[in-house]
């Protein structure tokens, strides 16, 4: 399997490199291409092949970002074009969830302050999970995407396209304990910020959030 990661935290060691490493650990037999159109310099991941433009792949994953869909930047046009035109299965996490919705006719709005918390997420099939959220932009209209999960603080917590193999989540299934610990060690997250997350709860992981649901669409 060849995975193209639209790697939008490539300037960060923990939430970028370690977060992508965690995402990829849920897939077998992977060739990885890393595309980061938002920066000219990136952390050396020591895995994957850095590419300057999107390449053909079996799966595309769009990560979270420190940038905001509600504050559109020029490089986002190329990501949006990829979303609109690809026939490849597509997964979106946080920023990825937002830019997919915005590119497919939805709307994203900015809240007054950043939200960081662990919350229950209820799926349309009745499944209830705990998920870690950290974001300021919110999808307020899913456009072509169909809402399949919500939480008390996030009405559009997960989406699925009714016809195309596209799945997205507003929360961070890759933010497992070792990624958080690395962020603390590297100063990407403070002790105070970490205390906002109850990591003693069983947080939904990448496989349960996106990999298994995608397999059910194939």
What does this structure look like?
- This protein has 218 residues and is an alpha/beta fold.
- The chain has one domain: 3-Layer(aba) Sandwich (Rossmann fold), CATH 3.40.50.
- Helices cover 26% and strands 32% of the residues.
- The chain contains six helices and ten strands.
- It has helices spanning 13-24, 76-85, 95-103, 177-186, 191-194, 206-217, and strands at 2-6, 31-35, 49-51, 59-62, 90-93, 107-123, 128-141, 146-151, 154-160, 166-169.
- Strands 3-2-1-4-5-10-9-8-6-7 form a ten-stranded mixed sheet, sandwiched between helices.
- A hairpin with a 4-residue loop joins β6 (107-123) and β7.
- The radius of gyration is 16 Å and the shape is globular.
- The two termini are 14 Å apart.
- The mean pLDDT is 93.
Number of strands: 10
Distance between the termini: 14 Å
Q: Low-confidence spans: pLDDT under 50, at least 5 residues?
A: none
- The CATH superfamily bears the name Class I glutamine amidotransferase (GATase) domain
Q: Kindly identify the CATH topology.
A: Rossmann fold
**Rg calc:** 16 Å
CATH class wording: Alpha Beta
Tally of individual helices: 6
Proportion of residues in extended strands:
25-35%
Number of domains: 1
Major β-sheet strand ordering: 3-2-1-4-5-10-9-8-6-7
Molecular shape: globular
Question: Helicity, in percent?
Answer: 25-40%
Helix-strand category: alpha/beta
Largest sheet: number of strands, sense, barrel closure: 10 strands, mixed
| CATH architecture group name | 3-Layer(aba) Sandwich
- Following the backbone from N to C, one meets helices and strands in this order, namely EHEEEHEHEEEEEHHH
Q: Output mean pLDDT.
A: 93
């Amino acid at each position: 399997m060849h995975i193209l990661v639209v790697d939008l935290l490539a300037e960060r060691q923990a939430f970028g490199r370690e977060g992508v490493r965690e995402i990829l650990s849920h897939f077998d037999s992977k060739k990885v291409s890393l595309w980061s159109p938002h920066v000219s310099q990136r952390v050396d991941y020591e895995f994957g092949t850095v590419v300057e433009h999107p390449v053909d792949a079996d799966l595309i994953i769009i990560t979270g970002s420190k940038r905001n869909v509600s504050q559109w930047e020029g490089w986002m046009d190329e990501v949006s074009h990829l979303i609109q035109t690809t026939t490849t299965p597509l997964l979106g996490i946080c920023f990825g969830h937002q830019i997919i919705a915005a590119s497919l006719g939805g709307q994203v709005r900015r809240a007054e302050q950043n939200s960081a918390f662990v919350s229950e997420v209820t799926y349309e099939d009745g499944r209830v999970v705990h998920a870690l959220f950290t974001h300021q932009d919110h999808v307020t209209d899913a456009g072509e995407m169909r809402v399949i999960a919500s939480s008390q603080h996030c009405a559009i917590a997960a989406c699925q396209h009714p016809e195309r193999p596209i799945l997205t989540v507003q929360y961070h299934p890759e933010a497992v304990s070792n990624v958080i610990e690395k962020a603390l060690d590297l100063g990407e997250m403070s002790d105070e910020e970490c205390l906002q997350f109850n990591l003693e709860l069983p947080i939904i992981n990448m496989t349960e959030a996106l990999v298994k649901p995608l397999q059910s669409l194939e």
